[in-house]
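Researcher: Last one for today. Full complex below.
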Amino acid sequence: MTRDGYGLEYRAGENDKSETKAKTGAMADEVIFAPLKSGRDLTVLENYRQTGGYSALEKILREQTPPGELLAAVKESGLRGRGGAGFPTGLKWTFIPRGLPTEVYLVCNSDEGEPGTFKDRDIMRKNPHQLIEGMIIAAYIMGANAGYNYIHGEIWEVYELMERAVADAEAAGYLGEDILGSGFSFRLHNHHGYGAYICGEETALLESLEGKKGQPRFKPPFPASYGLYGKPTTINNAETFACVPFIMREGAEAFAEMGKPNNGGSKIFSVSGHVEKPGNYEVPLGTPFAELLQMAGGMRNGAKLKAVIPGGSSVPVLPAEVIMQTDMDYDSLAKAGSMLGAGSVIVMDESVCMVRALMRLSYFYYEESCGQCTPCREGTGWLHKIVRRIEKGEGREEDLDLLVSVSNRIDGRTICALGAAAATPVRSFIKHFRGEFEHHIRKGECPLDKKAA
Amino acid sequence: MEISLEINGKTARAREGRTIMEAAAAAGVHIPHFCWHKKLSIAANCRMCLVEVAKSPKPLPACATPVVDGMVVRTDSPAAKKAQQGVMEFLLINHPLDCPICDQGGECELQDLAVGYGISRSRYAEEKRVVFEKQLGPLISTDMTRCIHCTRCVRFGREVAGVMELGLTGRGEHAEIMPFVENTVDSELSGNMIDVCPVGALTSKPFRFSARPWELQTKPGISAHDSWGSNLELHCKGPTVMRVVPRENEEINECWISDRDRFSYLALDAPDRGKSPMRREESSHRLSESPWATALDSFAETIRALSGKYGADKIGFLASPNATTEELFLLQKIARGVGCENIDHRLRRRDFSGGEINGYGITVEQMRRREHLLLVGAQPSAELPLLAHLLRRRPRRLALSSVGAAECGAAGNHILARPSQWSGILESVLRAAQSGGGEKNETAAAAGKKLAGKETSILFGGGAVQSPHYPALLEIARAMSREFGATLGVLCGGANGGGAAKTGAMPRAGGMNTAEMLRGGLRAFVLFQCEPEDFAERALLSRALGEAEYVAAIGAHSGGLRDCARLFLPAAAAAETEGTFINGEGRAQTFAAAARPPGLAREGWKILRVLGEKLGLDGFDFSTFAEIRPQFVGEDFYNGGGDGAAAVSKKKNGADDSGGLELDFAPANNGLELAFAPAIYDADMLTRRSPALQKTASGKNAALAQMHPEDLRALGAEDGDWIRFSDSEGGAMEAAAKANPALARGVLLARCGGLFGAENITAEKMQMDKAASG
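Model: Here's the assembly. Have a good evening.
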């Protein structure tokens, strides 16, 4: 068992999940990582086929299933966008106008760049063909003949792997003109981004794909009516697409039943931080956090849990006592005062200085703001400078109120959600750990440093 | 479809698809904004216009949110105000709060709105951002720390000027407006960036720190450089023009002006500006100052004496087409009063045999709605920068065809060719229109098809009008007009392009036109507001002036005539006199003097009035400007400028009867042809003397001999090498070369300096002494 903090060495099939499952009684690896249980290298197309891969697509194309029927299944499955917003996928797909004499584009957002996220990379690296199959089915449903997979900048080897997978799928006749003699054509292009966080925002991603500077567009118009090159476009997260073959093969009901009502299916949680076995864990939505933590081997060195950011750095942090009582699904986390986000669970133990943690996060948003609109361009820098000052022991009495006020002035007034993403950690860290911030300000030092000494 | 919405409790109506910003403006509600500009695309990036919309959880940007029926908008509710104040605070945290030392102070949109939406004390206690200045050229100064990243300048470049010369680079707090690498901003409309910049980040380099807006008086004016008739606002401090900005006129220049209109005022105090009458005695080689009375008397006496000695037909009157209608009218009255028919304003013409077209033949508004424009020998960006703008953002239905020696800068059917080939091409276009295709040259065939099927306007540029082939071109164009109803027009008429001809400042039967005057062995010349550089055949003019016995110049600047004039009378420039310009669409615009002429200089019409009186002519016994107009208003000045329906001669057969046109792109055996495209800042006496304009890239290029890179290579020369050009008539000139791939092969684009001919020009690379060139 390796533990590199980011699950680089994680192998689903060999990750003694059986033991975990026995301990926790939870299901794991049922949808996207399920074929990995075969122990085969799924980057090889034939191996994927032998686990049932591409059978859903073949059936659809053979039977020429009406797209409406397939769309109904996606709706019924309760699949919600896995990229962070959790928007019902089936509903999103109905926004694409049908029968227009214009090109429709399909875009896969694999540009995960938020601190804590690393699931799309593993999906592409371990089961690329399920993503490809999902995109082809989605393209069939929406009548798209061209698709793009926008891959994050730092993972070049995954881009190369996807290029090989797409070439293999083309050679096997699953991509290209007249797929399997069905008359349906779909070309898929991988695009290697350059690592800017903002390009994960769907309209900035479109701009970047078009060869422009990655800056979000203001909405409306939404991509469904004015997307890539001005054409109707659907953008979904890689995990969302990768769920589709399962829904088609096993049925919408099977997928929906896996989770809770309105929170159907399984979800990959990228657990990082102070746990024994960081990595990606695919579990049904609604799995209690306590179980997930146990799967990840529990707290590292038996340390005490302090706080968890359950959905990636842009969602509110939850203190240990709250998260331990919470189930990991969209609605439960919302009730607890946070969000499921992309399912990027950042676990922090008692050794973490929350001021320093927030300083790191606020630096990230300050660096990654695109600079287009005023509140985010000016506000993220302001936030970071104040937090940095507090961390350095130069905080002032009024700083905490100022931080909350500045956060409120950014949130909801920007073109895209990056402003809100920058404001949220600030407010939630201060809300839950105000005492720690006040200690820094009054004493000019970190209480943890003292403890360590 | 009209919908109804509620803005601040009042019902308003708006067309569907309009934004809240537009609907509110129509309802008289002002919404604060920075990035929004009525002529630019929507960016929605400043967030200043956030308003509260019922049922929306977040405030929405008024500039980008379309209205819907039943929408309830509040622009002044506590929630809206809070959002606006929040944005204002963010805008100010990194913006220097030193308005007293900022050039924009007093006319700054940020300053104005900060009064309404800012708080009196800053909560920001961190270090402020500092951004280095950018070198954008001689027209625009930068103070980039003041930039609020509204990207109006970027969008202006991309959408109006047609070149994206500035961009937003970097991210977040490090985002900066900058040119690509170390480029300067060179578009001919670049000065408008100063106007669209809402803060002091981009300011006028020549004007900077010379006056405060509240010290300036605003006077209306009209552009004196081209026939577009752009409306100007001249900002004066006392008797002096301090700067020029656009005056909005939706029908003509919208809210833009060219850099030429904006920065030519700098020529008003050029070193050779005439401030006193000057005379040269028979015995002297130098002009020396003279009292007005003596100077005027000497003019009258000399003119009388010379017409007595040689006859009045040995005198020539030449006037700038940028002179006012009143001035031209009085000048021709004087000429005819002394019995002379030799008067002309068409200085940039070589062949006058084809007849006349004046003005565009259509209005600017019609031009915008036309289906097809056929440009001949035109370079819109140099001749009429605002026409270039119109062509760039032309409506979808407007097709564009052009024939010229240089790329015309707007997409369409464009044929690049030497001037001598143009008539052949136009014939091909005409044939294609008649036969419905069949021409070998596909572009000509396509243009022909449009000529036949669409509402067409043919517009001649300076390159065509100045060409020795103009009569042939005119003849074909008239056939096009006759057969297909195309209108005819010229673009290059000068500021009074639609009026000069009607004032009578042209020879009638028995009189000489410009070309004849230059060759007619005249004994005396009277030049009004012009100098040799204003002529197509400037070498010939210089020779003619040198050989004449008497040269009298009336003008704002003495420079070009200092050596040959016997009398110089200092006149007001356009900004300093009242007058009327009739633009290319035939629109008469009368203006008042904005500034006072310097020293003893006087308004042109006053000088001409006294000269007429001194010569004892009738009709000069008036005393006010208002008394001039009634003398000519009967001449139908206020109708369209074109006379495209003028008599048409029989179309001659094309030389090439095979029905096809083969363009010969190799350099002609008989040498180079002058392309005649007038350099944008070599247009007239003012632009030539504006230091800022001359320092721009276009200004510097004007002195170079531009040729196609292949032609230059054929000479064994490269950029910067000196080339000697000579023609068959004994003319010669030398100039440094510059390769210009936008030119046709076999064409020379240069100030024609010492050349007499326009064709058969031979070029030779000059062997420079290494030491000398180094």
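The two ends of chain B are 71 Å apart (CA to CA). Confidence is low (pLDDT under 50) at residues 636-668 of chain B.
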